[in-house]
Amino acid sequence: MSKSQVLSAAAVEILIERLRALLPHERLGARRMFGGVALMLDGNMLCCASKSGVMFRVGKDAEPAALMRPFAQPCLGTGRPMPGFIMVGAEGLETDPTLGDWVKLARSYVETLPAKSSVSKAVRKSSRRPDPRGKN
Predict the structure, then answer these.
(1) Which pLDDT tens digit goes with each residue over 74-95?
(2) Residue 126 within a domain
(3) CB of 40 within 8 A of CB of 47?
């Protein structure tokens, strides 16, 4: 994908809905991250749709093979590689079968991770004992 190609906000929303349709709703959450919307499966990030395309969490072992697929490239967070994450440009996600293949690959890795609690950071922070130094 060329770096100049950017999805519109409406196109990103459509992409998010296409991703949601492929995942079990009872185990799915969403969170704003990385300049887009990350879909969380059992509390673990599965993918993140943004104006650049979709970042999929495939794990370090699957990364080399995933990078061989069309429109896949290493995911560069703040200019540094993010091991186990692949960025797929919009051109590589145009068909539902192709999008489904990427979701299956990411899901096969993320489902090996332990589920995370659905308790938000704000709730966890408020339930901690007060810091005697006043730095809660």
Answers:
(1) 998 778 889 999 999 989 999 9
(2) no
(3) no
Confidence of residue 116 (pLDDT cuts 50, 70, 90): confident
Phi, psi values for residue 10, rounded to 5°: -65, -40
CA pair distance 116, 65, nearest whole angstrom? 28
d(CA 1, CA 53): 9
Q: What whole-number distance in Å separates Cα of residue 102 and Cα of residue 108?
A: 10
List the CATH number of the domain containing 71.
3.30.1460.30
CB-neighbour burial class of residue 1 (10 A; exposed 0-12, middle 13-18, buried 19+): middle
Domain hosting 103: range is 9-113
pLDDT at 57: 96
Specify the number of domains making up the chain: 1
Q: Give the span between the Cα atoms of 34 and 136, in whole angstroms.
A: 26
Reported confidence tier of residue 117, pLDDT bands at 50, 70, 90: confident
Q: Is residue 124 part of a domain?
A: no
Residue 123 lies in a domain: no
Residue 16 lies in a domain: yes
